[in-house]
Structures are given as structure tokens and as C-alpha cells.
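Listing S7. Sequence submitted for prediction.
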Amino acid sequence: MLNGLIMHWTGRAGFWVAAGESSYLIFVGINIEIVLCFSIIWAAAARVFPEDLEMKILGLPNRFVFAGTFGLLSMCTEALLNRAGLLVWQWWWFKWPYALPQILVFYTLAWYGLIRFQDSEISFRERGKVVGVIYAVLVTALVIFAVILKWV
């Protein structure tokens, strides 16, 4: 949605655009194939996390290692999609190879946040409330920006 808003506000393009044919275009730069790809990688990642939160890998906390590893895998996926012409990075500072460090940092932080949220000591009920608030904000933004204003 943010990518569509950037395209609306600049009148040019979002950070990235999904090029070519797609089964279903959800937003600017996001299609069903990309959503499914990243859903599968999260499901796979959840299966490999060690239960021992204190376990070290190469002397580093395992959650940092997994966040970095899956961040790197996610970045490589983005880079391959870009190189194949299926994901277009429009702005000069977000093009090959300038985008790679930005994407790596973003995905590593995103993965770390998701991993820590999953591992946190909060109850399942409290976790559900947090996810509910996130969805409420997203649905509200969707109604405002897509349905009412027709910006995305």
C-alpha cells in the first residue's frame, strides 16, 4: 500500500513495480506470486528455529543468525526477481546494486522482529491483540487510501 501511495504522490512510480503478467495484482509492486513466495519462506523458517533461545551458532545468538540468513535469502529473491525483469526498481537509489544493502537491512530487521515476536513471553491472547491492532490499522488504511481516496 505504501508503494502505491508513493506512486500516487510522486506521479511517477513506487519504489518497485511488479512487471509482466501476474495471476493477481494486489497492489503496485505486490502480486499473488510474491505474497505466496514470502509466505512459504516464513512457514519454512518457523520450522527450523531451535527451541533453545540461548543456543549460539558460530558464537552468535541463533535469532540473529536466522534473521540474517533469512534476510539474505529474501534479498537474493528480490535481486533475482529484479535481474529477471519481474520486479522493477524505479528510483536510482533503489536500483541494482544500490538497493541491495537497503533490502538486506530491511529484511534482516523484519525477520528479527518477526522471530522475536514469535519467541516473546507475551501470552497468545496478548499476541492476538497486537496482531488485531496491526490488521485494524491496515484495513483502515486500505479503506481510506484505496476505497475512499482511490490513491492505491
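Caption to Listing S7: primary sequence and predicted C-alpha cells for the chain studied. Residues 24 and 32 are 5 Å apart (CA to CA). Residues 121-152 form one domain.
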